[in-house]
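Collaborator request, handled under Task 6.
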Amino acid sequence: MMTPTLWLLLGVILIVAEVAAPAMVSLFFGLAALLVALLTWLLPVHAGLQWLLFALLSVALLLTLRSRFRSLFPVKASRAEGDPDRDIVGKQAVVTQRIEPGRPGRVELRGGGWPAEAAEILEPGTPVRVVRKESITLTVERL
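Structure tokens returned to the collaborator:
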């Protein structure tokens, strides 16, 4: 049988887990565990009923409050959902250091310098377009 102390501990662990890996899910499981801790402290509740209450409260809190919490605390998109470098391909840059075939140079893109390679000689000041990004090196072509 879970004691109120164990439910309290479970609730705190789940809420801390939300901070470590924010997805707006374990927070509501943690809140449900805290509510079950309060109920088991106030009333003698059978172990099976404790788990049923925990499940019902978790689902109810998740369904009713998650959308409200997400609007207050937006979760950052993961790299799989929105890679910030994905939209670099197709963007215009400017050569800042001479680029030769087999000898990378540098380009400026979005205010930052990037190593770049190209199939032709490109002099500083030449406007280019990014055609590929591999690791941190951009492959560019003359505009």
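The cover message to the collaborator said: "The first helix runs from residue 4 to 20. The domain at 86-142 is CATH 2.40.50.140 (OB fold (Dihydrolipoamide Acetyltransferase, E2P)). Please let us know whether this matches your experimental observations."
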